[in-house]
């Protein structure tokens, strides 16, 4: 067997900012997932609830775009949270075929509890980095978003 000398990635692949971002995101997601499990919630549920809270009335297709998941994944999540009484669909005032999503009181309560857990993860990061570096990191991440945004 002969070895192909051509490497599939550049020599710096594991030292790139994008790889560090991915590792950090996976670590944060794992911490949130583990802690939210005690509430019977997944990170995807939290993401949906907080997005609907911040932008009530979103339709499923737009919500899927905001969460970067398929419309089928959103439909499944909405059905699950609707079954728990945490979200409700309402008919759009002008387009009767569009269903808007809104939090119910149970959804707001679930979001409050989940957000407290996520805030603990946030505090763990701030404690490890220090307040000023944590704020600097947040600002840099905002800059990363702007740098790669395609308008």
UniProtKB/TrEMBL annotation:
Pfam families in alphabetical order: MarR_2
Residue ranges of domain HTH marR-type in the record: 14-146
GO MF term (any one): DNA-binding transcription factor activity
UniProt cross-references to SUPFAM superfamilies, sorted A to Z: Winged helix' DNA-binding domain
Example GO biological process: response to stress
InterPro entries: HTH_MarR-typ (IPR000835), MarR/SlyA-like (IPR039422), WH-like_DNA-bd_sf (IPR036388), WH_DNA-bd_sf (IPR036390)
Protein name, as recorded: MarR family transcriptional regulator
Source organism: Streptacidiphilus pinicola
């Amino acid at each position: 067997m002969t070895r192909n000398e051509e490497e599939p990635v550049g020599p710096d692949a594991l030292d790139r900012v994008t790889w560090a971002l991915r590792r950090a995101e996976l670590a944060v997601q794992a911490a949130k997932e583990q802690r939210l499990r005690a509430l019977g919630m997944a990170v995807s549920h939290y993401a949906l609830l907080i997005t609907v809270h911040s932008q009530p009335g979103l339709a499923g297709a737009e919500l899927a775009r905001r969460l970067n998941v398929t419309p089928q994944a959103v439909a499944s999540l909405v059905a699950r949270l609707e079954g728990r009484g945490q979200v409700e669909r309402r008919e759009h005032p002008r387009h009767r075929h569009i269903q808007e999503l809104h939090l119910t009181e149970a959804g707001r309560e679930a979001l409050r509890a989940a957000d407290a857990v996520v805030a603990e993860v946030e505090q763990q990061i701030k404690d490890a980095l220090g307040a000023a570096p944590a704020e600097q990191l947040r600002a840099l991440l905002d800059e990363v978003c702007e740098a790669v945004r395609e308008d």
